[in-house]
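Render this sequence as a predicted structure.
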Amino acid sequence: MANILHINCSPVGPRSESYKLSERIVALLLKREPTATITGRFLGSGTIPHIDAEYAAALGAAEASSAEKRLEGSFSLSEELVQELEIADYVVIGTPMHNFTVPSTLKAWIDHVARVRRTFTIGRQGKVASLRDRPVFVAVASGGRYSSGPARQPDFLTPYLNAVLGMIGLCDVTFFSIEGTALSPETVAVIRAETERKLEAHFSSLSSPSPDELAKQRRLGELLDDGLKLTFPASDPVAPFIEEQLTSHRGR
């Protein structure tokens, strides 16, 4: 059974365009995975605090502190959020664009899940992701336009999310947007219709994974989320597939 992690970041809640768009994405995923379970995280009201001093100090430390080992303070919530992410087969993020980038509520979530020695490691060649990849869908709403047009505003949200999610292993990221929510209702209605066409086209082009493929993906996920430990016997029929994927993962 698949699991969908649904994260919403707008302080406006269900009335926001990003919330509605993310709900539509979840509905399309449920068409593909009708038995999927949904884990919801509403961040819009600031339910996730900023990281504490112990956590901040750990980000630049070469070894784990006692608070990190015992999962004290911010580490406790971080572990809860990371585990939600690990069991998810799909991640859907609904977020507004605030001042050209992600809102502080989403940044607080990112700071908790992008954790050294947990979701990424640091070696001689830099940071190495520790999580397995999975589809991530980002539903963005912005008052102005950032993808095209003469009044196009800067976009630091898209490259930032691609970079920080990729750092922990989430590289399969797809963005959908409702741009120009501050424009006239008639214009916004046209924008919504265009986004709906893009959604339908994207999800209709996806094929449902076979039972064999699902088994391989779950087996791979268990290995990657367990620290990339090769514990399967050589006789395992999915061993060559997993070895290939692990080699690719290490090379990122």
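Summary. Residues 3-208 form a domain with the Rossmann fold fold (CATH 3.40.50.360). DSSP finds nine helices and seven strands in the chain.
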